[in-house]
Amino acid sequence: MELVSQHVKGIMEECKVRARDAGLRFDDETLEYIVTNRDLIELSPKMMIPTLYDYWVHDVRVLSGKGMYEAYPSNPFETVINTRPAISYYNDNNPDWLNVMIFYHVLAHIDFFQNNLFYENTWDIDLAGQALADKRIIAQLRSEKTRWLDYVIEFARGMDNLVGFHKDLNRTLLHDTPKKPTRTDFYFDLFLQKIRSVPQHEYVKEIDRYNQCKKEGIDFFEQVTVRYPEFEELFRKQIAHKEPPHMDILEYIIRHSAFLRKEENEWMKSVIHIVRSTSLYFQPQMRTKTMNEGWASFWHEKLFMADDRISGHEADYAKINATVTAMPKVGLNPYALGMRLFEHMHEMEDKGKYSFEYFLLKDAVLKKKYDTHKNTGRSFIFTVRENMNDFTFINSFLDQEFVDRHKLFVAGRRINSQNMTWQYYIKSKKAEDYKQMVINTLYHPPDIRIDADKTKEGILYLNHRFENKPLKSDFIENTMIGIAFLWGGPVHLETSEPKSTAQLDPRYTNFWDPSAQGTAPAPESVPIEWKRVRYVIKDRKLHKQEL
Fold first, then answer.
1. 452 and 426 inside one domain
2. Claim to verify: residue 156 and residue 269 sit in the same structural domain
3. Domain-embedded: residue 77
4. Using CA atoms, how far apart are residues 171 and 120, in angstroms rounded to an integer?
């Protein structure tokens, strides 16, 4: 691995000028390295951070990567990481014309890293330098604690997807100054809905009365205190009440584990903190993959097509670009989906189609011809790039026009009873169904929180806030063993499971009887019934109880 030559660096600097002219914003300083496929295989398990701490799983993945490369050789063109300065890696056999396209792609990634608000808690961190300091701490502890160090890393990494990313981000955005509820917020959000539980029509009437009072300059709460004498006292208690800080599992264990408070175990806190902070740093990238790759693909196409250095390489570019941004009929390509959504939004906003007037149109011909020449598409997509993540991006802009334009559909599959093979068919062409399919593929770790009321007498009680997605049962035992070790006592996990495993897919209830195939109802027509269960890990033994 070595820095790019001055010739290649000159190409990159020229790309920076053109990218900034197009509206992209990023730091002046960047580092570019030329790497071989061997380097990429060795860096990939460390998330492309050369200075990340050593861990035995990294070695296993390197060996696995080498085996995969021998069976299926591939040459990734680039990789970029969100550091300060931003570091990017380029394959050693990329020609200059290809590097021009790749540099535009990388610069768009850097623009996304440094301007999307979901990355704000990473902007002031030198990740490469921090990782090097962490690596030295881990190396020192490994020489003293030997295999116990790797056990602690393994146990902590077993739950590092449960870190409180949104809480940490909210703290950063609010600059550690949580907003106290106003009298209006308390009245409409808590008092009417949760304390008084008023009917919906009465709630709407109160909103109308509030707006009318505000318009006429009348004190809205004068009538409230007459109608609800207890309101003011409850509001004062709400302001005085200090919400206990919500902590994720790793943070809670660091602060409250009696086992870790023992002098001989204090070193484990440093290891857990390193695992947690590293996971928090990479959370934004996992939650913005479609947007990030779509944004980079959108700009590499727009900028490279207008660059005179494409001359003579149009066919080569078309071939490579198609492999990256082709829209598959079955399955998902985040590069293609994200890029085409940005193109769709740009065009819709340019023509003024994000308006009530357009959405109220019923005539298909008039909708097709609709164009107010608003021409604000570019500024609009930059605003979206700044404020959204994958979920809000997909949920807000993937509409029926987009689905129809690209002839997208949700594919289903069923068993052919004649030859016992899978048959694929078009299940739906509705935007809502396609949108839900995409949302279901997004990164969404389970929401597991500490139940403070039940965490007592040495028991750590975890409550899974169920969202119709059961936990992967294969990982429950090993993960809970790790949590119990770091907690130093029994751990309880409350979650939901289907009442019968046959409910997960009725097509398998009689799989070996061909005459029964096709007689079972479709999976979506059979509602799954859920039950609450509690897993208990004590003395490294796992037990399950129905609640």
1. no
2. yes
3. yes
4. 11
255 lies in the same domain as 137 = yes
99: amino acid identity, one letter: N
Which of the listed residues 284, 312, 343 is the one where a domain comes to its end? 284
Is residue 152 packed enough to be buried (19+ CB in 10 Å), middle (13-18) or exposed (0-12)?
Answer: buried
203 SS3 class? helix
Strands 86-91 and 30-35, by their bridges, are parallel
Cβ neighbours around 138 below 10 Å, total: 21
If asked whether residues 454 and 538 sit together in one domain, one would say yes
Return the bridge partners of 536, or none. Answer: 492, 543
In sequence order, which ranges of 147-199 are alpha helices (DSSP H)?
147-157, 165-173, 183-185
Contact 156, 272 (CB under 8 A): yes
pLDDT at 43 over 80: yes
Which residues constitute the domain of residue 236? 183-240
DSSP state of 192: I
Residue that is last in its domain, among 240, 261, 276:
240
d(CA 217, CA 200): 26
Can you say whether the dihedral through the CA atoms of 89, 62, 293, 84 is positive or negative?
A: negative
Write down the pTM of the prediction. Answer: 0.82
86: exposed, middle or buried (C-beta count within 10 Å: 0-12, 13-18, 19+)? Answer: buried
Q: What is the pLDDT of residue 372?
A: 92
Residue 401 sits in the same domain as residue 494? no
Domain membership flag for residue 173 = no
Cα gap 547→533, rounded to integer Å: 5
Largest CA distance in the chain: 80
pLDDT in tens, 367-378: 989 999 999 999
Same domain as 259, residue 149: yes
Q: Is residue 314 part of a domain?
A: no
Residue tagged 């016992």 (tokens): 420
Q: Mean per-residue pLDDT for 427-439?
A: 92
Cα gap 495→251, rounded to integer Å? 21
Residues 24, 47, single domain; the answer is yes
Decide if 315 is inside a domain.
no
Span 371-396, mean pLDDT?
94
With 0-12 CB in 10 A as exposed, 13-18 as middle and 19+ as buried, what is 433? Answer: middle
pLDDT band, residue 172 (cuts 50/70/90): confident
- Mark whether 21 and 94 lie in a shared domain: yes
